[in-house]
Amino acid sequence: MKEIANQAEFERAIQSNKPVVVKFYTTWCPDCHRIDPFMPEVEAAYQEKLDMVAVNRDHLPELAEQLDVLGIPSFIAFQQGKELIRFVSKLGKSREEIEHFLDRTVQISEALSEA
């Protein structure tokens, strides 16, 4: 998963015509580390339908605040610079919940493309 280093890089990433899912995390978050082992497989399974990038909330606190990201890990999907859907909560996330969120992201993106 590509790491976003600054606000400008984030803005460029979310302008894509393909949905972009941003994972917000920190190095000290136990729930973030719990999902790390399966995230490469999840990312590979969805690579044709969407892109995934990562933002360390502690490195870009202004961005996390601007997007109201309080709980981590959190996922927000964007397309053409606009937010599509988010999976933000203070609770840990399972692989199934993350995959359900990614499926919904793809469905919303496809519905918008047809409109």
Explain the overall architecture.
This protein is an alpha/beta fold. The protein has five helices and five strands; from the N terminus they run βαβααβαββα. The chain has helices spanning 7-13, 30-35, 39-46, 61-66, 95-114; strands at residues 2-3, 20-25, 51-56, 74-79, 82-87. A five-stranded mixed β-sheet has the order 1-3-2-4-5, with helices on one face. A hairpin with a 2-residue loop joins strand 4 (74-79) and strand 5. The protein is globular and about 40 Å long. The termini are far apart. The mean pLDDT is 94.
Order of neighbouring strands in the sheet with most strands: 1-3-2-4-5
Which sheet architecture does the biggest sheet show? 5 strands, mixed
Distance between the termini: 30 Å
The overall pLDDT average reads: 94
Low-confidence stretches: none
Number of strands: 5
Please state the overall shape, judged from the principal axes of the Cα atoms: globular
Strand content: 15-25%
The arrangement of helices and strands along the chain is: EHEHHEHEEH
What's the helix count?
A: 5
